[in-house]
């Protein structure tokens, strides 16, 4: 008669409970590539971004004085891109968190109508967030981004459209991979910060990176912002390039989102919104 197999159990008591909970989250981390990516993402992006800023300020020490608030304007305009993308994705996530997504898709609401509604909420969230920050900048730093006039409206519109395209793309990934990928809503757009050249011109980048930077609408917008603040000139060519790229990105984001919705419907994933 063979001896029964001995199963080695985890320690009991407080240490066992601590071990069990930690092990649960280790398994969760191991099975979720977005979570693993997030661990190395923030230090890497911060190092690249601030390394570029430091290199630029060391070589161009008088630039900040000439720019007259370009760093503050860069922060505020960057927040348009970040808040716009996050506003779209968070509105989508609210429906997933409340487990209401499946109910929406059995209603007369069409996917395109839902996208437009999310865009509207993104605009509202962005206006509230960046508007408040702009007022604080006036109070604390005596700098008004509104001094850019109509150029600010053009920059705002271009960055908002770009944010919608990224919001749709991130929402498509979340719909495909579940709530385990929801951290993408916060950190994916920050991958664009080094190549968007928010705080320094594109010329600071290595030569081989410059074409990559100009493939994104944001780099054209921030170059145009500096032209307004330093040269007092609105570069229509930069804004036009940004808008043309925006159209392409918006079409791609919409296609990705609508495709993910169709696949989710076919596979019955709309009610399976867990990890």
Overview of the structural elements:
With about 280 residues, this protein is mostly helical. It has one domain. The protein is about 75% helix and about 0% strand. The protein contains twelve helices and no strands. Helix 4 packs parallel to helix 7, helix 7 packs antiparallel against helix 11 and helix 7 runs parallel beside helix 12. The chain is globular, with a radius of gyration of 23 Å. It starts with 12 loop residues before the first helix and ends in an 8-residue tail after the last helix.
Order of helices and strands: HHHHHHHHHHHH
Structural class: mainly alpha
Please give the radius of gyration in angstroms: 23 Å
> Which sheet architecture does the biggest sheet show?
none
Report the helical percentage: over 70%
Overall pLDDT, averaged?
79
Can you tell me the overall shape?
globular
β-strand number: 0
Whole-number total of structural domains = 1
Low-confidence stretches: none
Number of helices: 12
Q: How do the helices and strands line up, and which of them pair or pack?
A:
Elements: H1 13-30, H2 33-59, H3 63-67, H4 70-97, H5 101-105, H6 111-141, H7 150-177, H8 184-187, H9 193-196, H10 210-213, H11 217-230, H12 236-267
